[in-house]
Amino acid sequence: MNHLFAFRRVGTWFFVLALLLQVAASPALAKEEATSSSPLALHIEKFLADLKNDENSKGMYAGIAVYDLTDKKYVYKHNAERNFIPASNMKLFTTIAGMDKLGPDYQWKTEVFVSGKVNNGGILQGDLILKGYGDPSLTQDDLQQMAKAIKDLGIKRINGNLLLDDSYFDETRLGTSWMWDDEPYGYSAQISGLAVNKNVTTLTATPGKTVKDAPVLTMNPATTYITVTNQLKTTAGKESNVLVERPRGKNEIIVSGTIGVQAAPYDEDVTMEDPAFYVGDLWKDQLQKQGIALYPKAEVKKTVLQGGVPLYTHLSKPLGEITVELNKDSDNFYAEMLVKTLGVTQKGEGSFEAGSEAVADVMKRAGIESGFRQVDGSGLSRFNMITPEQIIETIIFLQEQEYRTELEKSLPIAGVDGTLKNRMKGTSAEKNLVAKTGSLSGVNTMSGYVTAKNGHKLAFSILINGIYKSKYARELQDRIGILLTTYPDIAAPEGFSPPEKKTYPLSAMIDPILDTPEAAGVTAGIMIKSLDTTGDPVLFERDADTLLTPASNLKLLTTATALNQLGSDYVFKTEVYGDAPITSSGIQQGNLYVKGYGDPTLHTENALQVQEGVSIEKIAGWLKQQGITRINGNLVMDDSYFDQQRLGLGWAWDDESYYYNPTIGALALNRGTVMIEFKPANDAGKPVDINVLPKTAYVQVINEAKTVQKGEENTFAILRDRGTNTIRLSGNLPLDHEGDYERVPVEEPAKYVGTVLKETLQQQGITFAPKSEVLIQPVPPAAVKWTQFESLPLKDIVQYLNKRSDNYYAEMLLKTLGAAKKGKGSAASGAEVVQEAVASLGGNTTFDMMDGSGLTRYNLISARQIASVLEGMTKESTFAVYDESLPIAGIDGTLKNRLKDTPATNNLHAKTGSMTGVNTLSGYITTKGGEKLIVSILFNGYVEDEELFTKMQDQIITILASYE
Asked: What is the pLDDT of residue 35?
């Protein structure tokens, strides 16, 4: 719609006037164009209208398509061209592509090779090699049969190593944007070319015989590859509250909480890192159980086999059988193994990307050229985006394929089996409706078939996002499914007329922008409201109650609450203690303690500093000024003011190396990061020049990056090994690169503070006892407080936070709210405070808030709810500080380079937000007529070019600034 603003500076008002005339000429109310008047349509529209009248369901939005496969025509559509997160409905694409490219009879193989020879005594003088080809169904029993086959071939002893080859797939073991907090659980198992038991082991917790006895933990299959830490307690009664955790990057399972002495055993499928070694551990055990002796120093190691003839080959069940389990049980692991198999067989690369390309090839044959995004096979990633129409097109395509029957019998049957076993029982849909279901937090989907009363086969797709309470979504799906079984003998619902679409003063100007064909897949939640009018204040709204992912617009809630609850002049303190008062001798016996209270500005005095406030150098300088020359104790960091959860729930595992995904703690430094400055060396072939800030031993930097000639491809990358402070630099940096820097998060932020403080003290001549350590412990009650340092006032901190959209600052504020107001420094407690604050500002609190920054895709909120906060803040004493903290169009912050030379320049004060598939803008603007407006624009969905999001926002904002 660029033509709308071809002459922004001169012609904007004439354009606005023309559109206003269009509004005047149109009726005040108009029927929604897509609404049908058929009895089926009226029933579904009534279902949807009823949901809009309930606070717990009004935020959810649905895309629905129903197609008569017999008559070959659509019988109902609602938002069928919009993109939705499909959850496990993505498996329909994956399994149809798998059947199409591989065929129902396809079998995966797992091969055994030997290097060396077997002598007459049955001794293998060499290695035994196990090579995987992506079999998703390999079991411990299969390994037993393979070990027996090796024994039957005459091998009695292996004088070599057990080698594993999982190179059939790449080394990316988790899908794009999978959430770190899902990782311990079986539905998020790592993917590997050599796998067993779906790369999980089942952990069982059995209560002790009495409350004094520790619960018993077992694993099946038993493995030494995973260690288990038992912190679980047996308690009285039947109730249990068991928590299973696996620290990122580690093969340790920590089981905590309680289990009732009368409770049933608790089972959980748990995962592991680099699961090929899990296969190796079970393989070794099975060989020994067959009586095959192993060389005492034999190791289980990885290799990449270059060729050879297998000694033994195991074949899996056919794909047709595996697909039944995949779809009926909605098995993520099977789906991911299948998509990578498609990648390697069709594209020569066992990756998620290649597999998704192979699926896309099949979708093109189904008539779906573009307009969707697939990044994994199972639907676990929220990056996946498809439309109901695309699912219908896939089902239509399926009807003409030889494997149709095989695929359809893999789908769950209502009231009978799979994920539909307990749904629609005792209704006309039982044993009739077959469909693939899908669910994630905020997402529920169902697509498949039903036989109508007239015998016609109806294909349907119901994709629902923005769910606050999941039962409403399931009930809608079930009601539609049951209704379809009665088609076409359906009477129109009595007394119901479809809701009429209301028009607003700005509808004729804004609707054309939102309805551009390029944005067909986008859901837009918009609220534009006047603060000055005495009449109806709403100038425009569309789907204003729809719950959408807000990205950094959530910071508007976090900062508003912090200013109102803590006060503009609130300061964060950092306390320093000793085991005794400061002595005149300069030698301190005992420990030095530092306790943090969530100061987000604590820094080192170098390029990492972004604000004034407390620095490590300032703390060290103060200690030196007191005459302290030696500390004969440990340096103890106390970060107990916050909980120990370092990352927000739902943050993506593949973001952990990047500054915007920092680790959070009550005592943290440099926004939880170190800085890597880099530039090309003087000559090609030499390592890239780097500088690490601060100069600390806390991180290990491995520089494998090379300088290459001018004009060569820049493949330079900085990544941190998960769960560690090892940072790896790789790739090539051309000579003509200007150089840059990256901030990289570190693990255990309090220990980072302690390490850098100790190094700084030593540089200033303060020594420690030889065995002194940096420890993380609470300050003991008997410790003596020496001093405290205070941050800048909150008003300055909030200004930096909102102008720069700093995630770290926002998360520190959220946990501070929890600690200060609820006595618990957690994100959940902080979110409680925010919800209470939103209510006090006049807003509705039926939204989901899981972090303070908006980084997690668990967050769901509506444009109306954000607008209520913006409006409520105008009546608060903190409003001036709040308003001044927001980026100003064309002037500063994240709006510095937007809306320049437009009426919005130096006018719009607003918070931006963006993630893949999400773009938001909310704030304040004054019209040409001097009217103060609130605007909230939330875009979620798929577009070919994400610049369209900001383009549409800027067009809307320009209209508002020009409006009289």
From this structure: 43
| Euclidean distance between CA atoms 772 and 791, whole angstroms | 29
In Å, how far are 79, 137, 259 from 64, measured between CA atoms?
Answer: 6, 34, 43
Model confidence at 37, pLDDT cuts 50, 70, 90, reads confident
pLDDT of residue 320 exceeding 50, the answer is yes
pLDDT in tens, 438-470: 999 999 999 999 999 999 999 999 999 999 999
Residue 22 has pLDDT above 80, yes or no: no
Name the nearest CA neighbour of 529 among 865, 849, 841, 844.
865
805: annotated active-site residue? yes
Integer Cα distance of 387 and 393 in angstroms: 10
Measure the CA–CA gap between 716 and 732, rounded to whole angstroms: 5
Does the annotation mark 552 as catalytic?
Answer: yes
Query: For residue 15, what is the enclosing H or E element?
Result: helix 8-25
pLDDT score, position 501: 87
3-state secondary structure of 280: helix
**Among 77, 555, 595, 803, the one annotated catalytic:** 555
Q: Could you tell me which residues come within 8 angstroms of residue 779 by beta carbon, excluding any fewer than 6 positions away?
A: 575, 577, 593, 595, 636, 638
Q: How far is CA 321 from CA 107, 141, 318, 431, 587, in A?
A: 10, 18, 6, 21, 74
Residue 687 DSSP code: B
d(CA 666, CA 949): 36
- Coil, helix or strand at residue 47: helix
| Mean of pLDDT over the chain | 95
**Annotated catalytic residue 233:** no
d(Cα 47, Cα 61) in Å, to the nearest integer?
A: 12
Reduced 3-state DSSP string for 614-633? CEHHHHHHHHHHCCCCEEEC
Residue 614: CB atoms within 10 Å: 21
Average pLDDT of the segment spanning 615-644: 98
Q: Give CA separation, 134 vs 93, 193, 272, 357, in Å.
A: 19, 4, 17, 18
* CA separation for the pair 449, 452 (Å, rounded): 9
Q: State the virtual CA torsion across 86, 911, 851, 809 in degrees, nearest 10.
A: 140
Q: Which of 330, 439, 447, 552 is catalytic?
A: 552
Mean pLDDT to the nearest integer, 181-192:
98
Is 50 exceeded by the pLDDT of residue 318?
yes
- The one-letter code for the residue type at 608 is L
**Mean pLDDT of the 677-681 span:** 98
* d(C-alpha 115, C-alpha 827), whole Å: 55
User: CA of 731: how far to CAs of 231, 657, 705, in Å?
Assistant: 43, 16, 5
Q: Cα separation of 387 and 465, whole Å?
A: 12
Pairing of strands 157-158, 293-294: parallel
Angstrom distance (rounded) from CA 718 to CA 724:
14
Question: Which H helix or E strand runs over 50?
Answer: helix 39-52
pLDDT digits (tens, 9 = 90+) for 322-348: 999 999 999 999 999 999 999 999 999
Question: Residue 86 and residue 99: Cα distance in Å, rounded?
Answer: 20
Dihedral through CA 854, CA 674, CA 606, CA 594, nearest 10?
90
User: In angstroms, what CA-CA distances link 708 with 676, 702, 737, 738, 740?
Assistant: 19, 18, 10, 13, 16
Residue 194: closest CA among 313, 279, 107, 286: 279
Cα-based distances in Å from 957 to 513, 522, 951: 11, 18, 10
Q: For residue 495, what are the contacts with CB-CB under 8 A and spacing of at least 6? A: none
Distance from the Cα of residue 396 to its chain's centroid: 32
Q: Which of 356, 805, 853, 868 is catalytic?
A: 805
Spatial separation of the C-alpha atoms in residues 543 and 515, rounded to whole Å? 13
